UniProtKB/TrEMBL annotation:
<keyword id="KW-0999">Mitochondrion inner membrane</keyword>
<dbReference type="InterPro" id="IPR036539">
    <property type="entry name" value="Cyt_c_oxidase_su7a_sf"/>
</dbReference>
<keyword id="KW-0472">Membrane</keyword>
<comment type="similarity">
    <text>Belongs to the cytochrome c oxidase VIIa family.</text>
</comment>
<keyword id="KW-1133">Transmembrane helix</keyword>
<protein>
    <recommendedName>
        <fullName>Cytochrome c oxidase subunit 7A2-like, mitochondrial</fullName>
    </recommendedName>
</protein>
<feature type="transmembrane region" description="Helical">
    <location>
        <begin position="86"/>
        <end position="110"/>
    </location>
</feature>
<keyword id="KW-0496">Mitochondrion</keyword>
<keyword id="KW-0809">Transit peptide</keyword>
<keyword id="KW-0812">Transmembrane</keyword>
<dbReference type="InterPro" id="IPR039297">
    <property type="entry name" value="COX7a"/>
</dbReference>
<dbReference type="Pfam" id="PF02238">
    <property type="entry name" value="COX7a"/>
</dbReference>
<dbReference type="InterPro" id="IPR003177">
    <property type="entry name" value="Cytc_oxidase_su7a_met"/>
</dbReference>
<dbReference type="InterPro" id="IPR017267">
    <property type="entry name" value="Cyt_c_oxidase_su7a-rel_mt"/>
</dbReference>
Length: 115
């Protein structure tokens, strides 16, 4: 059995296969036309660009892999030096501060109101 959403009852109702595969709002038989171009500069179609791939810079992945895979005793998340240490310490401070804040809020909420 096929179902279709009824705009009148706002429920699913039984429907014929042709009605179930023709959702409301879509019209059949309209010609397919490409939309007008709104860009100010001409663009290349994929077929016009050819099979060459243009890169914006050199591939740094092999160098970074060598850098991060060296075993020098430094954890991977601290390999890049000062910026990584700053980010790590800030994250840890915010985490510890958030835990302390939650515990203080829980302690205050558990206290009976004294008036």
């Amino acid at each position: 059995m096929y179902y279709k959403f009824s705009g009148f009852t706002q429920k699913l109702t039984g429907a014929a296969p042709t009605a179930a595969y023709s959702p409301q709002g879509l019209k059949q038989g309209l010609p397919v036309e490409s939309p007008t171009m709104i860009f100010t500069t001409p663009t290349k179609m994929v077929s016009e660009a050819g099979s060459t791939v243009e890169y914006l810079g050199a591939n740094k992945v092999p160098d970074l892999q060598k850098f991060f895979q060296t075993s020098d005793g430094v954890p991977v998340h601290l390999k890049r030096g000062y910026p990584d240490r700053l980010l790590y310490r800030t994250t840890m401070a915010l985490t510890v501060g958030g835990v302390v804040y939650c515990l203080v809020a829980l302690y205050i909420a558990a206290q009976p109101n004294k008036k």
